[in-house]
Each structure stands twice: as structure tokens, then as C-alpha cells.
């Protein structure tokens, strides 16, 4: 791993994003690129006030409105740079030497697509600063949902607060995306020395057992301490409950599959799990 891209804003999750970024960087040797994205509405460029003319607005008022837009854009830029400076100080304060900052203007998902090409991982908080209290318990953030659908690199979703991670729970369904996740875990020093449990949710089958054992052997061969089990029940309920009740610090999952785990990211099951699980999630496409 050479670089991770971490997105920060003014939300309560940004401190956790910085702490997770520092933890990853120290374990993997990666550099940290901190990004803050100003959406188009936060800039004065391309502002169209022509609609006000048809309502009889005076030209002086139009100039004042344009001036207010320009001043707001300037203030948002200052705010963005301040957020980045604070974030960089947090990461550097944890002993990470390679920290860069970048203020970008434009669409958030498009920025991710552009920036992830040069990174090994994307790091983002579960929700952004625009989330309401109702959204806190009902759905995942809009930016996060778009990233999970589009990102080609692994995405680490930071929880509200960072806690030291020693145990990892892998939601295993045998599909390509979670197989890739296991390959990453076997090779990346980020996971070295962590305890791992592979869990398949559903009825035990001969093929499923072979698949689970193959994944366990791959991780064990890489020197990880691994357990594997099959559990009956609802996928989201089992994974979320096990993760939070048994001292796990991270949940690893694939973003695509042909079993019920597919809905873990792309459907209501995913929304419920990510919204309510208090742990960070490592999602691999």
C-alpha cells in the first residue's frame, strides 16, 4: 500500500477518519492524502441569477447578490483549508510523516473516481456534515452510497469514533469481491497480527464449507490467526450483532455477490447494517 485517500469535512466523523487514516498509515507504511471537496453550490462560479431579472430585481440588488455569492465561496474555501490543516495536524500528531492536503471543487463522487486511481484505499466517514439526526439512524450518507456503487478500490467506512482494532470479522459468501478482500488481507501488513473470524450466514452446504475452509487456509498460510464458522439466520442481523457483541474492531465484506450478501451493500439490508453498526467497515469490490 502506497497511499490512502481520506475525505474530511465538518462532520463529527472527520476526527475518526483522521484517526483511522493514521492507524492504517502506521501499520501499512502508506502515505495519507487528505481531501476536502467543495460542492458546486459552495462556489460562485457559474452562478445563474437571471431568474431574478424576470421578477423585476434592480441591477444594484443583482450585484449585491453576486457579491454575497462570491464572499460565501471565499469563506467556504477558507473553511475548507482550515479543516484540512486541522486534519493534517491530527494525522501528523500520530507520527505519520507523509501527509498531504488538497482542496477540490466539484462533484464528490467524480472527485473520488479521479483520485482513487492513484491510491490503494478510500477512507470516508459513515455520514457527512449534511446528515440530519433522523438520517443518523435511518440510512447511510448519500456520498457514501454513491462511492460504494462506483469505487474500484477498497473503501474503509470510519465509525463515529476510533477504537484500537485487534479483531476482524469477515462476512464470507465465497463470491469474487470477498475473495479479493481475503487476498488483500493475506498480503497487506495492515492486517498482520490481527485475529480474524470468517463467518458464512445461512445453511451449511458441502460447497460452502469447502469455500470457507479455502479462505481460512489462505489467511492462516499468511500467518494470521483465523477461525471459521457457519451461522444460521439473517445476514445483516447476524453480522451486526456478532461484530458488536464479541469485541470485533472491523468488519470486512465484499460489495458484490450473487447471494444474499449482495444486498448487504446495494439494498435495504446494507442501509440498515451500515447505519446501525458502530464498527468501521472495509468494503472491497
Would you summarize the structure shown here?
The protein has 285 residues and is α/β, with parallel strands linked by helices. It has 2 domains: 113 residues, HUPs (Rossmann fold, 3-Layer(aba) Sandwich), CATH 3.40.50.620; 122 residues, Rossmann fold, CATH 3.40.50.620.
SSE ordering: EHEHHEHEHHEEHEHEHEHHE
Structural class: alpha/beta
**Shape category:** elongated
Strand content: 15-25%
Number of strands: 10
Spans of at least 5 consecutive residues whose pLDDT stays below 50 are 43-47, 132-138
**How do the strands of the widest beta sheet line up side by side?**
3-2-1-4-5-10-9-6-7-8
Please tell me the total number of domains.
2
CATH C-level class of the largest domain = Alpha Beta
Can you tag this structure with a few keywords?
alpha/beta; Rossmann fold; ten-stranded mixed sheet
Task: Give a written overview of the molecule.
The protein folds into two domains: 3-41 and 77-150, HUPs (Rossmann fold, 3-Layer(aba) Sandwich), CATH 3.40.50.620; 163-284, Rossmann fold (3-Layer(aba) Sandwich). The protein has a ten-stranded mixed sheet with strand order 3-2-1-4-5-10-9-6-7-8, sandwiched between helices. It has helices at residues 14-28, 50-53, 59-93, 108-115, 133-136, 142-150, 176-187, 206-221, 235-245, 263-266, 268-276, and strands at 3-7, 31-38, 99-105, 121-125, 155-158, 167-171, 195-201, 225-231, 250-254, 281-284. Helix content is 45%, strand content 20%.
